[in-house]
């Protein structure tokens, strides 16, 4: 088993435990510390869900201004990519009207493929008290606030390798855009701060449904990687495990159950055995949960919806798993639309909207809505100007945030001037300079999640450039009053 694989099995670092001889003493100390911490832990349960849209989503066709002046600017800039407010012959291609309840007070529409997101913004089932979705406009990676002149003169620090997929994905997940080698993500560092004192157990609080995610890797904690069928165990007891896998896993189990004279071999066997037992415990809980009450909300042909269906199970099982705090990572790739933007994005947004809406409806139906915040992230925004087929890599874009703790039905942040060569444009075809930092976005959600002000700069090293962590106000203001401290 590789060191990376060993680390995936534990909320505590397996590698750190393996580096010391008295492994059993270490585990015993962790158990004692967990029991003490559990006595002071919060009694509520909260989950933060990230859906990462890999490829760089063109989010300025996701959120579009509808008032005459700003729409005219949008249409002139986007030209062949502009979506109509009112299509002369195809009403299904009209922008869907968003009715703001506060926010910046302007008129907006959402992409015609997003019927579910429109309903969540305006109010589930027409109930305006259930405005579950909001949008944060022109958000992106920043080290500190930047003006156009500062950008052009390079007189202030800028994120490393802007417009690069790999670098910007890392920066959204680490919140460290300076270009330093960063081996931990901000959800992982959150687990470093909260896991042992809040959850008080050894099950990892960071769960990924999309393989390893840098977002959830901490310095002392890692994520628990699962599939939408649950945890993968060494016993082959997961659904439809191939015969050869069952045979291999049985052989592996027989090896680690042996008694060894060598202390390191014995310690490795004990540690691996514990990891297997954790995975089997998780799988038993997962398989034992009956989600028939909400299963029909999730189309079986929508693979993103199936990830969210699995997420509902994991959220519903928080208490059984001993998790008062939990993060879940979901991925949806294919958003790098240099060509065929209009047709391809329309289908992908339908998939995404259906999945997100089913997820939020399920949470509401199960009474879990007030303990979950879901947000979208992507590599970067895209150019406003068409390249003749689609759009190219840019910077600022729009992000969705939803859940019971969110003051939905609002557009937060500052929507940019979409005229080419405006003060919000870097000067390259409508690459928007972000006016809201990812740190402000993440910092507000972390105040709800329970990260103390004294630890906020550990989780988000640049937060002080945008927000006073000791402030009695919020950096964006998207949380409902009374949901944060």
Tell me what you see in this structure:
This protein has 485 residues and is α/β, with parallel strands linked by helices. The protein has a single domain (3-465), classed as Alkaline Phosphatase, subunit A. Helices cover 37% and strands 12% of the residues. It has helices at residues 3-8, 14-18, 23-38, 68-78, 115-122, 148-153, 165-174, 186-199, 243-256, 263-288, 303-316, 318-321, 341-365, 438-449, 453-459, and strands at 46-54, 63-65, 96-98, 108-110, 133-140, 206-208, 224-225, 325-333, 372-378, 397-402, 411-413, 436-437. The strands form two sheets. Strands 1, 5, 6, 7, 8, 9, 10, 11 and 12 form a nine-stranded mixed sheet that branches. It has a three-stranded antiparallel sheet with strand order 2-4-3. The longest helix has 26 residues, at 263-288. It starts with a helix and ends in a 26-residue tail after the last helix. Mean pLDDT is 86; it is low at 1-39 and 234-242.
Assembly state here?
Answer: single chain
Structural domain count: 1
Anisotropy-based shape: globular
Percent helix, as a range, is 25-40%
H/E element string? HHHEEHEEHEHHHEEHHHHEHEEEEHH
What's the Cα radius of gyration?
23 Å
Count of DSSP-assigned helices: 15
Largest sheet data: 9 strands, mixed
The percentage of residues in β strands lies in 5-15%
Structural class, by secondary structure, is alpha/beta
Poorly predicted tracts of residues: 1-39, 234-242
Question: Mean of the pLDDT scores?
Answer: 86
List how many beta strands DSSP finds: 12
